[in-house]
Design brief:
The chain has helices at 2-14, 18-25, 39-47, 50-55, 58-70, 74-86, 95-106, 110-127, 132-138, 144-152, 155-159, 164-174, 180-196, 198-208, 214-220, 226-233. The chain is mainly alpha-helical. It folds into two domains: 1-90, no CATH class; 108-235, Leucine-rich Repeat Variant (Alpha Horseshoe), CATH 1.25.10.90. The chain has 16 helices and no strands. Helix 6 (74-86) runs parallel beside helix 8 and helix 12 (164-174) runs antiparallel to helix 13 (180-196).
Length: 235
């Protein structure tokens, strides 16, 4: 495991450049630790180890991911997201606690939050929907990324028209959240849900638009027809 980590970090350093790092940082308000490696290259580096990782015991993979998380580098977080999703067929209910800890302790920007939650957490809750109630508890966290994670973990299931009741329950709690990263997160969740459930999501938006922050509202109605957008935006 340590050999693979050393090889991964060597490859990341070899493929890093100042220009990519500068462009990458421009997407974030907060200072993000990164090597400066293009996303496609990061995933290519990770995929070189797919066969080895799939052959490992799940505990070994999770330990590898834990070590990669700890450095705080964005590219290493993306590799964690790749490996943890790669082993999705091995997920068990108890893994929820591990994933929850990772979000709370290691996620520090929207990119690692969304990549991890869209893939790993999205796959997990589809396999074990009994954990959906635990996502709702994240909405009460002081950690902005936990609150955003509660919503963006349902993006992929929402694309399939799933979990609409849970989506509305999470949006209810986050409705007046003052953090724009959270507003964008639940707005995005509603937007994706609106593709399969336009009538229901539009009704939800109209019911709550007086209180819903405009940032969240704009995200939620983005995929709706112009006439519905106009009604939603009208005061």
């Amino acid at each position: 495991m340590n050999v693979i980590i050393k090889k991964i970090r060597k490859e990341l350093k070899r493929n890093s450049d100042f220009h990519t790092k500068a462009i990458g940082q421009s997407f974030f308000r907060e200072k993000v630790r990164m090597y400066g490696v293009k996303s496609a290259v990061v995933i290519k580096i990770a995929k070189d180890y797919d066969k080895q990782v799939l052959a490992w015991d799940k505990k070994e993979v999770l330990a590898l991911c834990e070590e990669l998380w700890q450095t705080g580098f964005l590219e290493e977080a993306f590799i964690v997201c790749h490996f943890s999703y790669l082993i999705r067929k091995k997920y068990q209910p108890a893994d929820f606690g591990i994933f929850e800890k990772w979000i709370n302790n290691y996620v520090s920007n929207w990119a690692s939050c969304d990549t991890f939650c869209n893939h790993t957490m999205g796959a997990f809750v589809e396999m074990y929907p009994e954990n959906l109630s635990k996502l709702k508890k994240w909405t009460e966290s002081k950690n902005r990324w936990m609150r955003r994670a509660a919503a963006v973990s349902l993006i992929v299931p929402a694309r399939q028209g799933k979990f609409l009741k849970n989506i509305f329950e999470i949006a209810d709690v986050l409705l007046m959240d003052s953090d724009d990263m959270v507003q964008k997160g639940y707005g995005w969740m509603l937007k994706v849900a609106s593709v399969a459930h336009q009538k229901e999501v539009f009704a939800y938006v109209m019911k709550h638009k007086a209180k819903m922050p405009r940032t969240a509202l704009r995200y939620a109605i983005e995929k709706m027809p112009k006439n519905l957008k106009a009604k939603a935006m009208a005061k």
